[in-house]
Amino acid sequence: MNTDEFVNFRSRLMEFLTAGGACAVGICNADNLKGGPPSTDLTRELATAKTAIVFAYPQDHKIIEAYMGKINHEKYQKHYIDINNIVAGLSSEVAHILQGQGFDAVPVYAGNTPSGGDGREVTPQNAVQAKSAERYPATDVDMMMGLIPVLSQRYLAAACGVGFFGRSGNILTADEGATVVLGAVVTSADFEPTPPLPEEDNYCDDCNWCEAVCPTKYMSTTEVTVVQLGERTHQYSERMNGARCGSHMGGLAGIANNGKFSSWGPSQKKLPTDDNELFISLMDLTDDQAKRPAVAGGFVPAFQESGRMNIMCSACNLVCHPERDVRGKRVKMWTQGGLVVQHENGTLEAMPREDAEAFVNAMPDERRALYTLIETA
Q1: What does the DSSP assignment read for 62-107?
Q2: What b/e readout covers 199-231, taking b as 16+ CB neighbours within 10 angstroms?
Q3: CB-hemisphere CA count at 13 Å for 364?
């Protein structure tokens, strides 16, 4: 195709995504990703890559607030899975359209980490990546848990103006906040990139409410991660031990460090404050979870032999909204929503803290031991 046709093709692809429901669309290339971690090298996903088309798809705020208010877990979980499937479908369709025009193209899926079932090597693959890894060293915990992506959708989104980093490290979009699912397609088509959003448009005001709703210490209150992407510097709170976040997200843990609220996980066993004791605790919590009744819904990780995975937290992501009063309301909903307990049929229910503790303490010892510590003589 000639130059005019190519420019029009780019515009039509972006319009295809917005018509499909995306709230923001951008395009990045090696120039506006230059200086970033190894996970910003587009060729890790596709050897012939020149650009990536990135987009954000919004979630339903009414469903989110029913979840944040500890009113309805199942509806949000299904909604989140549905949105991810829509994003995967749009990404696949864009890749198909590009391939039909003779370009190489592959979707970038959110689970492109070893912990998400992706078996590809994520350590530096060439000298350029090795140099960037020196600037952005991965922690031993990140590597052990498989948290490093082949290609980071967050960094791509920040580089091309789909959104900007909030304090939580989540991508905040102009209209929808952080309550979006990201999608991306890497291609050999050499499209004109879109610029990052103006720094003054970033409405993250360090309210710290993402930290307030986190049931465990995952975001540092003092340290920041600084990332260079092209000519722009981005920063967000340094992330602490990823196992703490994962334990609440997957429902192994539930109660917050302060004991005043919980994620949707029904366990009232607090995580140890010492990271050296954390993995032993998580092994015990994993055993507890395996013996509890199954929670309705969830998704099936094809890379596992059995079982389902549930979404039990995401509070730091779901609290962020462009309007400060909405953020404040969600903080109160989450932190004043009590503790979640589990009935014998697997159903989850939030109760005031005293009622939740009494509910668990009334269980037979064998069952109670799956949710709280039992003191032995």
Answers
A1: HHHHHHHTTS-HHHHHHHHHHHHHHHHHHHHHHHHHHHHTT--EEE
A2: eeebebeebebbbbbbbbbbbeeeeeeebbbbe
A3: 3
pLDDT at 377 over 70: no
Tell me the two tokens of residue 197: 């959003």
pLDDT attached to residue 143: 87
The answer to whether 10 touches 149, Cβ cutoff 8 Å, is no
Beta bridge partner(s), residue 339: 351
CA–CA gap between residue 312 and residue 374 (Å, rounded): 24
Please give the share of the chain, as a percent, with pLDDT higher than 90.
87
Encode 235-269: b = buried (16+ Cβ within 10 Å), e = exposed.
ebbebbbbbbbbbbbbbbbbbbeeeebbbbbbbbb
**pLDDT recorded at residue 375:** 67
80/120 Cα distance (integer angstroms): 26
Distance of CA 177 to CAs 68, 76, 162, 195, 197, Å? 15, 17, 11, 19, 14
**What pairs with residue 340 in β-bridges?**
350
Whether residue 215 contacts residue 262, with contact meaning beta carbons closer than 8 Å, is answered with yes
CB 320 within 8 A of CB 327: yes
Retrieve residue 172's tokens.
Answer: 């905040």
Strand partners, 348: 342
pLDDT at 376: 56
Q: What is the pLDDT of residues 312-338, one digit of tens each?
A: 999 999 999 999 999 999 999 999 999
Q: How far apart are CA 172 and CA 319, in angstroms?
A: 11
Q: Which residues contact 280 (CB under 8 A, 6 or more apart)?
A: none
Residue with tokens 């998400």: 116
Q: Are 44 and 125 a contacting pair, CB within 8 Å?
A: yes
- For residue 111, pLDDT over 90 is answered with no
